[in-house]
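protien #1 (seq + structre)
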Amino acid sequence: MEEINYLLGRFGSDTMNYIESERIGRGSNPNIDDQTKRLIAEELVPAYQLALEESNYIDWNYLREQVFSFMRAGAEYEKYDILVVDEAQDLSALQIKILLELTSSDTNSITFIRDTTQRIYKNNYIWDDININFGISSKLDLGKNYRNTCEIAMVAASLMQSALNHENDIHILDPDLTETSGLKPIWIRGRYTNQKQYLLNTLGNIDISTESVGILHMRMLDVNELYGKLRSLGYDNCFLLRDEDNLKDASGGIYISTLHSAKGLEFDHVFIVGYDDFFAPGPNSLSHRSTSAHLSAHRKLLYTAITRARKTLTITSSINEYSRFLKEIDINLLQTIRV
């Protein structure tokens, strides 16, 4: 399925180009021979698309292909003089082509902002592998970390060290290049009820009228439960992040979200709650989806959640069933507390 998504996300309906194309960079992993590529393009992709059609379903790749075909067919649509694209690391090649079509030929002004370390979804390509003439006039690498304290950046870097050996498009910022220092991140281990009580006690020591708090969980069910609990305790400035109107002024208040929805945001204080193996799967999880791509996505999701924090970071988990990714962090970088 990953290879089908790669084919449709990069080549769309041009399956012959997929078969003949040289695979370099992230596109070379996994290394697939021409016979297998032809089998995927000529048999598996049509079977997958037929199954979608018979089930009355469409997928994102289909929608993108339709939009791109619509544009190339000469349809009229608005173009923009200046485009700024944030979180560009998760875009597919076809999405990038669509964005280029939306750019006015008078200006050709498009800026992509990306952090490859935060690429959660596996796209299997690097930008030079897309066969698109960007005509890049300038490239700026931001080598300094302006958000996190050194202590938080060290935890994030420690987590991603294990990915460096098998992912060739990752750049980890040097924690020494941060602007500030602060408190050592905390790892709370105990029963879930005790984790929540610790969270409530800590919130009482934060001036949420002026500082922002992000409470993140893997499951929307638990996000809703935490939101209801805090509202019942009188926290009127507590918001669910699925409502974009609540993001207009994030200078103070409590914002509750899944780890996915917090992508691109930042908070003074971040709590990653209930980060257990059951919700962030490892080899022993109930999902059994411990492929390298799946594990890489979850590792980067945790990295992204960690780097939302400006001042303090707290991660809570059970005592024994915590996620395997917490084991990848240097324990000396965390203050461990049992509750």
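ok now protien #2
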Amino acid sequence: MAGGIMRYFDRLHPISAFCYFLMMLLVAMLTMHPVIVTVCYLSSVTFLGMLIGGRKLLSSLAYSVPLVLMLAVTNPMFVHRGETILFFLNDNPVTREAIVYGVFASMMLMSVFYLCRCYSEIMTADKFIYLFGRAIPKLSLVLSMILAFLPKMKRKFREIDEAQRALGIYATESYVDRIRSRMRVLSILLTNSFETSVETADSMRARGYGLRGRTSYAIYRFTPSDAMYLLFTLAA
């Protein structure tokens, strides 16, 4: 299922895919209707599960459920509006409407988060540079590198941490030792990141990036099916 979805969006033109995510994010962020929020949340969770698989989705949901509960509990402590008073806490009314609003507000935030995860899975750095490389070349390059850099740093941190454990750097399981070992891993990661950044800059300079008259090749072609998909997205 995940492969089919990825192949479909790979065939789709970047402008059509970008407009799809833009419209989905606008609907998720600008609407607080309970039905629409619920549909956005369920659809974003389903979409993300189709892209990354059920196991990774469950780990992501493990963070969303506590957030929903936390906002549902804390929102009535600061917002006291509502007609149905359940009880009083420090002489302040705790209303059912405030609890419900906190639940749907947290669902809206998680919908935006899951849609951004889906966006990062589908809209690669090449597609982002293709869309905005001519209009804002420097900014598009920086943003695309940031989007690609964060997952790489996460994977590199895990690799360094596993290598340090294999070498026996973690002497004990004490809290202080774990902090000291994590700081060592972080230092190695930052050093490696700086070296990679210098190598990337030298490589870009050697390939003539930023020179006048430099051309680029794009493999994307806007087809009639892309136009139909774009019109359907904007009309919906």
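The mean pLDDT is 79.
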